[in-house]
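Q: My labmate handed me this sequence with no annotations at all. I'd like to see what the chain might look like in three dimensions before we decide whether it's worth expressing. Could you predict it?
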Amino acid sequence: MKEEEFEFPMIPSKRNRRKLAYGVGVNDAWYKTQPLVEGKKYQCPYYKRWNSMIERGYSHRFKEKHPTYKDVTVCEEWHTFSNFRSWMEKQDWVGKQLDKDIILPDNKVYSPETCVFVSSKVNKLLTDSGKSRGRYKQGVYLERGRFRSQCNNGTRKSKNLGLFPTEQLAYEAYVNYKYTLILQVASEQEDERVKNGLLLHADILLKTLDEEQQRAEKKAELEKAILDAEEKIKTAKEALGKL
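A: Here is what I predict for the chain of 243 residues:
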């Protein structure tokens, strides 16, 4: 049975005896959120999302395992389960995942204004696999002295974009492919919040190429200045030697 089809029995619960979820979450449900029915345990889909969100915001163990959630919190309103459920009931949530930073890039707070339910494809599309790629730019991996560029397309498979002699060229291939892909996925979205959020992410990604170019130019200028200074020092020493 699908989670959205199960009718949770309105069994009186001793709410005042419930422990706070991860030290902050108040489960004020008027029913048992995880009842045992005919030997099988069911979990309320509203509670499941709420508890997972509270875990991401306040579980020390979770944050140690997932460092990107270090500064993530939940708005005070959603510390109470019934408030979150009231919001979720109005959303298109079936078969989707709760996301906090598609609408507002780099957002760290779960709230009604910043959250939306999205498909698994959309959610994975913007995943940053920083842990697996190491110190290299997003979408770039070192392979036998060259740089491989590959891009997650929202599925478990990655698109191989080829091998490149430099990290920058590999990153440019990644950005151009990912930018086009995000635009395509954005055009498929019915929710304007998700569509506009994806377009914003695409623009931010494209701007990183300009930033990389500016850094490269500054680095080249600095290297030239150092070479010029070294040449002047060499010339000065030669002149002194002739005195």
